Amino acid sequence: MSITHERRRFGLPGLKLLGITALLLLLPGSNIAQQIIDLCGCAGDPTLQPFNAGNPATYPPGTSGCSAACTSGSVTLPLPPDGVLRFSSFTVDGNFTIGFFRNTANTPVTILVSGNVLLRSTVGCCPDLHVSANDGSSGTVGFAGVGGLGGNGGFRGGDGSVLPINGFNIGGAGLGPGGGAPGTPTGGAGGGVFFGLPELVPLIGASGGGGGAGFGTANNCAGGGGGGGGGGLLIVANGTFTIQDYDVLAQGGTGGAPGNSTCSNGGGGGSGGAVRLVAARFVDVGNGRLWAQGLSAGSGSSSGTNGRIRLESLDASAQTSFSSNPPAIRITGPGPVANPVSPTVKITGVGGQATPAVPQGGYGTIDIVLPAPGVTSVDLATTGVPSGTTLLVTVKPRIGGAAIPATVPLNTCDSAGACTATTAFNLAAGAYIIEARATFQVQ
Amino acid sequence: VTITTSDPAIATTTGGASTTVVIPAGSLVAPLGLLTTGTQGAALLRFEFDGTARDLVVVVGNPPASQIPAVTAPVIGVRIDQ
Fold first, then answer.
1. How far, in Å, CA of A83 to CA of A74, rounded?
2. pLDDT tens digit sequence for A246-284
3. pLDDT at residue A442, as a whole number
4. Residue of A nearest to B63 (CA)
């Protein structure tokens, strides 16, 4: 099945456009739910096994959960490097909470199921399956709050500052394309802003809230850490997807409280993440709840924005199944699970040093140490990104300043569509986060 | 084909916030007017026919962050010594 989602942009505000759009009928559309359609692209895989939260024999290696048959517990699944788990069925029936260990690259979670998915509580409403973010920690005497980690695929919150301890009266920006601004002596930290297309392709997690500022001279003037951004979750079932008395969560993290609200501000809230559920048919038995909310900030700062929830089914059940916050986008006729071409953007070098294969800056770790301040080059490489696209490179001081953006066009490309570019920043000594992104319309 | 807009203040078809067009028997195409009001923002036009839906996102002016396609690079942590 081929589903097309077209996007058009009209660039001039205030201009009235009257166009002619052709409607193309691509499918007969009748009796579509009766067809066996391989939504997950995994139906032909003979190696698929069932997953049952109550049966540890079905757990993927590395799962933390029950050691014998059980009807309740907390089960945490490991994620492979690409974040994709594949099963013949996925059953959570009892009183189970389901989570996922973050992998090294902190990718979103994708679960492809050739059969049915069941998320059901037998003890009433509502245990959950979650890719939610961590809260930012609160500022305390002598300690600034630390940004909360993003959920699976989400971005970390910014760190807080304490002027007499670390010398800065401005916090750190939240990570991610919609990372919240840092708190300052005159304004609180910003909340994370959800970023991405309604189709949730590519699937990315949400951005973190900014870190709060500690701008007084007392040691308890400690900014709170920003909340992490909610994660990204895609579950695709070729069969039915049933939820009863169960939550699916991609919540942002709460911003940490300030140590003293008269001389510091709290962390911004993290943005809600992304939940996309695709199935032949949804079955809502009751209390099927989907949440991707941006959460609240510490005192004086801003909350994160809500994320996005998207339901797609072959029949019309996506239109009416499950409650959600924010309101779900509901589609009859699922779109592609992934782009046929998966564009990539990578920072390949900073200051002449190569970056690691799997950078850990998103976890708050230092990947590269440069010996001296000054003009610092940032080398970039892309695949699948159209030549001429402008990359946005952003340097975010870990604490102590606002994000520094720079744009660089992609002009040096080979015949296979791989491009490189370089830009530079004049940077003082200190710790930084460097991010890059490409924004373009897939034609 | 029934066409509805998520935000008539931004974009509609010529029939208004919700309209129906008929594709003649034997044809695959029907003409449809698209009208933007000049107000900046994004509207989702949904085309529903025979139990199937297609979406067309119309963005006027600078799109909001929630409508921007983004491919992000892994984040790099850097420390610069004095």
1. 20
2. 999 999 999 999 999 999 999 999 999 999 999 999 999
3. 52
4. A9
Omega of the bond leading into A126 within 30 degrees of 0 (cis): yes
A198 touches chain B (CB under 8 A): yes
How many Å lie between the alpha carbon of A47 and the closest alpha carbon of chain B? Answer: 31
> What are the two backbone dihedrals, phi and then psi, of residue A341, each rounded to the nearest 5 degrees?
-115, 125
Q: Is the per-residue pLDDT at A37 higher than 80?
A: yes
Closest CB to A427: pick one of B1, B73, B80. B80
Within the 282-341 window of chain A, which residues sit less than 8 Å (CB to CB) from chain B?
Answer: 305, 308, 315-316, 329, 331-333
What is the structure's pLDDT at B42? Answer: 76
**Best residue of A1, A3, A7 to probe chain B, by most B CBs closer than 10 Å:** A7
Rounded CA-CA distance A258/B44 in Å is 41
Q: Rounded mean pLDDT of A359-374?
A: 96
- Going from the C-alpha of A93 to that of each of A99, A133, A246, A282, the distances in angstroms are 15, 24, 10, 17
Chain B CB within 8 Å of residue A57 CB = no
Any residues with CB less than 8 A from the CB of A183 and at least 6 apart, and which? A160, A161, A170, A171, A189, A210, A211, A212, A213, A223, A264, A265, A266, A267, A268, A300, A301
Mean pLDDT of B35-56: 79
Angstrom distance (rounded) from CA A86 to CA A235: 10
DSSP letter assigned to residue A163: H
Phi, psi of B38 (to 5 degrees): 100, -10
Highest-scoring range by mean pLDDT, A103-117, A195-209, A429-443: A103-117
The token pair at B16 is 């208004």
Contacting residues of B for A155, CB less than 8 Å apart:
75
Collect all residues of chain B within an 8 Å Cβ-Cβ radius of residue A3. Answer: 54
**What gap in Å lies between CA A200 and CA A337, rounded to an integer?**
9
Q: Do B32 and A22 touch (CB under 8 A)?
A: yes
Residue A246: count other Cβ atoms within 10 Å of its Cβ.
26
Query: In angstroms, rounded to a whole number, what is the distance separating the alpha carbons of residues A202 and A197?
Result: 8
Q: Does residue A179 contact residue A210 with C-beta atoms inside 8 Å?
A: yes
Beta strands A390-397 and A404-409 are antiparallel
Q: Is a pLDDT exceeding 50 seen at residue A34?
A: no
Tens digits of residue pLDDT in B11-32: 888 888 888 888 888 888 888 8
Helix or strand (DSSP H, E) at A100: strand A89-100
> What pairing do the DSSP bridges indicate for beta strands A430-438 and A308-313?
unpaired
Alpha carbon distance A1, A27 (integer Å): 8
Cβ neighbours of A230 (radius 10 Å): 42
